[in-house]
Amino acid sequence: MNIVVGVTGGIAAYKSVHLVRLLTKAGHDVTVVPTEDALRFVGTPTWEAISRHPVTTSVHDDVAKVRHVALGQAADLVIVAPATANTIASMAAGLASDLLGTTLLATLAPVVIAPAMHTEMWRHPATQANIATLRSRGVHLVGPAEGELAGGDTGPGRMSEPEEIVEQALAVLAPQDLAGLRVAISAGGTREPIDPVRFLGNRSSGRQGAALAAEAAARGADVVLVAAHVDAEVLAAAEHSSIRVRRVGTAAELSTAMKDAAATADAVIMAAAVADYRPAEVAEHKLTKEQGVLTRIDLVENEDVVAALAAARAGGRAPEGQIIVAFAAETLTDAGERRERARRKRERKGVDLLAVNLADAEHGFEQADNAVEIIGDGGGVVGEASGAKREVARAIWRAVIDMR
Ligand SMILES: Cc1cc2nc3c(=O)[nH]c(=O)nc-3n(C[C@H](O)[C@H](O)[C@H](O)COP(=O)(O)O)c2cc1C
């Protein structure tokens, strides 16, 4: 998404550095438009470095590209954080004295502001009248929060935390079509210990599961994300007050956590890569070359978690109407063969939807992008998507909603 972040002249401008980081990390294209006063708090190089776009306050730069309207026209969302009393007044009056002002007038995108100022300034009738004007025009407010303000006072006026601003701003754009639904999602790859330092694992990063969780939460769902060895960096994309993360290690731990979450879930998505086998014995101490035992590992089969969840549902141990989605990563390059295998797998596992993805150098494991076909009732293709994993997540949720 194209997001413009307007930054105005308050101390909280430093917090917006983190806000921009959160947005870019989540894959959004962010252009920062500071006011002249904002640059007294945080300078141009910082904004350019974290957004990777040129930054200016003026309508007179890049005139050939009509930047003063182009930014607003191209934006999917505009966030002003912090929003000073002065900028709030300018917005209410419709002033276009700088690049932020013209961008705000030229945009048809939703506008979200995060006010920050001293309590007296916030409570002043002029500010409150301006806020009422902006609200009546459909501007969304996040905060201000109560708490310690610059200068040591406390009261309402503190800018909301960046995480909360991101969450609420993105929720403005997302349809709330999963509101009230409880969902359980598994992500990442399990590791089956051989000894205290070695394991059998796979290359799943958890990105697709994290994207599914983030998309569901943005659309109003309550999410349990069962994460097997997912990096903190990847989990950061799924930071949301409606997502509870349960970390697990082995297939057995994942199974327990998923069964627990699925018992009350309206939708279950198994995006994790779960080991089919585990070493029959786990050595108590590190195995050494000298022992000569590392050339052969005896394996025993793990439980088929997806099939177990489907069986629990069939046995009435799940909410009425629960939808179960499984994933299949295939290396077969022939799309027809891949689809056929996916159809058989869907039948065998007893799930409603099966998202089959090609795992190659550009797609699937450890990659930012994915490409899936979604197999549904009667083995038909009910959806497909390729591109960013968040895009793929949208297609999967669309298929789940259609099915419900
Ligand atoms: C140290 C300092 C902190 C300030 N913090 C705020 C603030 O949090 N909120 C606010 O509305 N104004 C604050 N101001 C005043 C604004 O910087 C001033 O009103 C300025 O004209 C805002 O311009 P802008 O809205 O174009 O960025 C602060 C000023 C200073 C010197």
Automatic annotation (TrEMBL):
It catalyses: N-[(R)-4-phosphopantothenoyl]-L-cysteine + H(+) = (R)-4'-phosphopantetheine + CO2; (R)-4'-phosphopantothenate + L-cysteine + CTP = N-[(R)-4-phosphopantothenoyl]-L-cysteine + CMP + diphosphate + H(+). Residues 183-404 are annotated as: Phosphopantothenate--cysteine ligase. Keywords: Decarboxylase, Flavoprotein, FMN, Ligase, Lyase, Magnesium, Metal-binding, Multifunctional enzyme. Residues 1-171 form the Flavoprotein domain. One of its GO terms (cellular component) is phosphopantothenoylcysteine decarboxylase complex. Binds 1 FMN per subunit. GO terms for biological process: coenzyme A biosynthetic process; pantothenate catabolic process. It comes from the Bacteria. Its cofactor is FMN; Mg(2+). HAMAP family: CoaBC. In the N-terminal section; belongs to the HFCD (homo-oligomeric flavin containing Cys decarboxylase) superfamily. This is Coenzyme A biosynthesis bifunctional protein CoaBC.
